Amino acid sequence: MPEPIMQGLLRRWLRGPSLRTLPFRQVCTAALLIGLVLLSATIHAEPLRLSIPPETMHAGATPAHGSARLSLEDAVAMALENNRGLRAERLRPAIQGTFEAQERARFDPVAFADLEIARDRSVRQFQEIQVQETFRSERERAEAGLRQNLPTGTELTLSVRGNRAESSRASEQFTGRGGLSLTQALLRGGRIESNLVRLRQAGLDVTASEYELRGFVETLVADVESAYWTMVLAAEDITILENALRVAERLLEETRGRIRAGERPETEEIGARAEVALRRQGLIDARSALARSQNRLSRLIRAPGSDWDQGFVAVSPAVPTAYELEPIAVYVALGRDHRSDLNETRLRLQRDDLEIVLTRNGLLPRLDFFLTLGASGYAESLGGALRGSQGDGYDLVAGLRFELPLGNRAAEAGASRARLTREQTREVLYNLERLAIQDIRAAWFEADRAAAQVQAREDTVALQEELLRVAEIRFRVGTATGLEVAQAQRDLLESQLSLRAAIIRFRQASTDLLLQSGTLLLHRGIETPGQEPIPF
C-alpha cells in the first residue's frame, strides 16, 4: 500500500475512539501497525543526499554548448605559443645579442679609402725685374688600406698611397708609398683581459636575459596552472551546488506535503524555502566565479583574435595520484641551483668582477710603442711609382708615447665605484638566497598543510554524510524538524566544497613549490635557455 494512503488510514484511526476504550489487543495491534509504517517510510523513502558525481572527481562540469575541452597540458602549450607577454620577452635575448655583436665589432678589420684633388693658381710679382708670373699646380692623392684593433692592445694599419703632382715649373710626376703602422699599448690597454671586458660583459648580459626569460616562462606556466585549477574548482562547485539545490527543492516539496498532511507546522516551509534561496544564491556566485576564471585563463592562453566568449571544459583530473612531498631540504638545494633570480644575480656579480678588471686597467698610465714603416717610389706613371722604376726609398718612425693625468681622480673614482658595486651585489645575492629559502620553506609548509587538510576534510565529509543520514531518519520518525535536516545538508555541502577547495589548493601549492624551487619547467618537461646552474 502506498505510504500516503497508509498514513491517512492511521490518522483516521487515531482520530477515532479513545485508546482507553479499546481492548489491550487492539492497542498492541495499532502500535505494531504504526511501527511497520514508520519502518517502511524509513526504508523506502528516497534519501535526501548530497553527493559528488563520479565524473566531477576527474573533470569539470558537463560540457556546455560551444565549449572546448581543455587539458592542463594543452593549456600550457597554448600559453607558450600564444601569450603576447611571452612573445615580447622572447625578444629580450635577441636584443641583448645585438650589444654583444656590437662589442665584437670593435675587433673587426676596417677598410678605408681617401681621395683628394687640389688645384692652385697664383700670380707672383717680382719687383726687381718688374715681371709677373702665373704659377699653377695640380695635386691628386689616393690612399686605401685596412685598419684593425686586436684584443692584445695592438692597432695595425696597412695602407697604399699614390700621388700625382704637376705644376707650371715641373712636369707630371707620380709617387707611391706602401706602409705599415703599429701601435702597441704597454700599460693601459695592454692586457687581453681588460680589452675583452666589454665583450664578455655583453655575453653575460645575453645569458642573464635568458635566465630572465626562463623566470618569465616559469611564472607564466604557474599562472596558467593556477588559473586552470581555479576554473576546475569553480566548475565542480557548480556541480555540487546544483545537486544541493535539487536536494533542497526536494526537501521543500516533502515538507509541503507533510504540512498538507498535518504532520508539520506551516512555519517549517519558511526554513525549507530559505534553504532553496541560499542554494540558488551560492549557485549564482559559483557561475560568476567560473566565468571570471575562464576569462583569466583566456587572457593567458588564447591567440590574438580568437573568440573569448567560447568557454572551456577541463578534462584533467583534479584529484592527484598522491599527496606526497620530498623532504624540504631537497627543494631548498634545488632552489639554490635552479632559481632564475639567483642565477641572474650571480651573473651580475660576474659582470661586476669584470668591471673591476676594467677599472684597474684605467688606473695605469698610458704608455704606447709605435712603429711606422714604409717604402716609396716615383716615376712618370702611378704603376711605375709603386714599382719604384725611377727611384725608391723608405721611411721608418719608432717611438714611445706616455700619458698620465695628474691625480688620476676619475680613474680612482671609477675603480672605487666598481668595488663598492660588486660588494653591494654580493650582499644582494646573500639576501636573495635567504629570501629564496624562506619562500621555498613557506611553499613547502603550505603544500604539506594542504595535503593534510585533504585527508582531514575527507573524514569530515564522511562524518557529515552520516550525520545527515541520522537527521533524515529522525525527520521521518518525527523527532527532528526540517530545519535540522537543512542544517545537516548545509554542513555536508560546506564540507564537500571545502574538500574540493583543499584538493585544488594542494594542486596550486604543489605548483608554487616547484616554482619557488626553480624546477617547475623541469618537472613539466619544458626546455628553455638558462636552465644550467651558475657557479658561485
Could you characterize what this model shows?
This protein has 13 helices and eight strands. The chain has 536 residues and is an alpha+beta fold. Among the domains are: 1-44; 110-198 and 365-410. β2 (110-126) and β3 (131-149) form a beta hairpin. α4 runs antiparallel to α6 (197-260), α6 (197-260) runs antiparallel to α12 and α8 runs antiparallel to α11. The radius of gyration is 45 Å and the shape is elongated. Residues 1-63 have low confidence and may be disordered.
Tag the structure with descriptive keywords.
59% helix, six-stranded antiparallel β-sheet, 18% strand, alpha+beta, 536 residues
Q: Beta fraction of the residues?
A: 15-25%
Number of strands: 8
Biggest sheet features: 6 strands, antiparallel
Strand order of the largest sheet: 2-3-4-5-7-8
Structural class, please?
alpha+beta
Order of helices and strands: HHEHHEEEEHHHEHHEHEHHH
Q: Which SSEs are present, and which pair or pack?
A:
Layout: H1 3-14, H2 24-44, E1 68-70, H3 72-82, H4 84-104, E2 110-126, E3 131-149, E4 154-167, E5 173-185, H5 192-195, H6 197-260, H7 267-301, E6 312-314, H8 328-338, H9 340-363, E7 366-379, H10 382-387, E8 392-403, H11 409-477, H12 482-516, H13 520-524
Parallel strand pairs: 1-6
Antiparallel strand pairs: 2-3, 3-4, 4-5, 5-7, 7-8
Helix pairs in contact: 1-2, 3-6, 4-6, 6-7, 6-9, 6-12, 7-12, 8-11, 9-11, 11-12
